[in-house]
Design goal:
By secondary structure, the protein is α/β, with parallel strands linked by helices. It has one domain: TIM Barrel, CATH 3.20.20. The protein has an 8-stranded parallel β-barrel with strand order 1-2-3-4-5-6-7-8, surrounded by 7 helices. Strand 7, helix 9 and strand 8 form a beta-alpha-beta unit. The radius of gyration is 17 Å and the shape is globular. Bound molecules: phosphoenolpyruvate. The site of phosphoenolpyruvate has 13 residues, from strand 8.
Length: 250
């Protein structure tokens, strides 16, 4: 099965020229490797110029955030319609770095709903800040899913992607173990099935947090995930090429 690799460029690179170079290289690699689909999530200001003229294929585009209101006086924000108009099909919602800036589970819920209504696929991020020895991380994930997904969203689970990104593994030196991801994937599905029924079984789940060419294959084979959400490595062509090759072989 094809793996879905989401490249979250965050606030990188500095110029459009560099962004274009990085995108062209990402596109070239994706074209060579049959087993992967890539969603490039560049800074919003680069989105349209990169996406324009691209044919639908194994590379597509996403925003790193959207606002839940359709339009109006929201300085600095971007709407779902604007993101769609810029030719993106996905939106990362509730990334840990945005939650750290104050985004709540209720904001996430409104954004997921707005994305679904507007025809974008939400990539809803969840994950605990710290991992202790108890089961708190499961409780936190349950709460993030409970509040983040409305009843309406529950009717459209096939259009939603859940990205499990334990905050302690983002920007770290080591990814989480695939075995731990497998446990969490089972927990996410069970939680969704209990609330929304059978459709919860087939929810797409990504893992994110310090993924690279060395650990990506193991995570895809043993982590019970559809794909990966990649930060730092996605803006380094060489490292991303190693990662994509590992994913294509997995
Ligand atoms: C992220 O920020 O979503 C992420 C996974 O970052 P990194 O790959 O750099 O840990």
């Amino acid at each position: 099965m094809k793996s879905l690799i989401v490249a979250n460029w965050k606030m990188n690179p500095k110029t459009y020229k560099e962004a274009k170079k990085l995108f062209d290289e990402t596109k070239r690699l994706t074209g060579l490797l049959k087993g992967v689909s890539v969603v490039v999530c560049p800074p919003a200001v680069f989105l349209r110029s990169l996406a324009i003229g691209q044919r639908a294929g194994r590379i597509s585009f996403g925003a790193q955030n959207v606002h839940f209101e359709a339009q109006g006086s929201y300085t600095g924000e971007i709407s779902v319609a604007q993101v769609k108009d810029a030719k993106a099909a996905y939106a990362i919602i509730g990334h840990a770095e945005r939650r750290a800036m104050g985004e709540t589970n209720y904001d996430v819920r409104k954004k997921v709903d707005a994305a679904l209504v507007g025809g974008l696929t939400p990539i809803m991020c969840i994950g605990e800040k710290e991992r202790g020895h108890g089961a708190e991380h499961f409780e936190l994930a349950r709460e993030q899913l409970r509040v983040g997904l409305s009843e309406d969203a529950g009717k459209r689970l096939s259009k939603i992607i859940i990205a499990y990104e334990p905050v302690w593994a983002i920007g770290a030196t080591k990814a989480m173990e695939p075995r731990q991801m497998h446990e969490m994937a089972i927990f996410i599905r069970k939680t969704l099935v209990e609330r929304f029924g059978e459709a919860g079984h087939s929810i797409k789940i990504l893992y994110g947090g310090s993924v690279d060419g060395k650990n990506a294959g193991d995570m895809l084979r043993n982590g019970d995930v559809t794909g990966l959400l990649v930060g730092r490595v996605s803006v380094d062509s060489q490292a991303f090429s190693e990662l994509l090759r590992a994913c294509a072989e997995a």
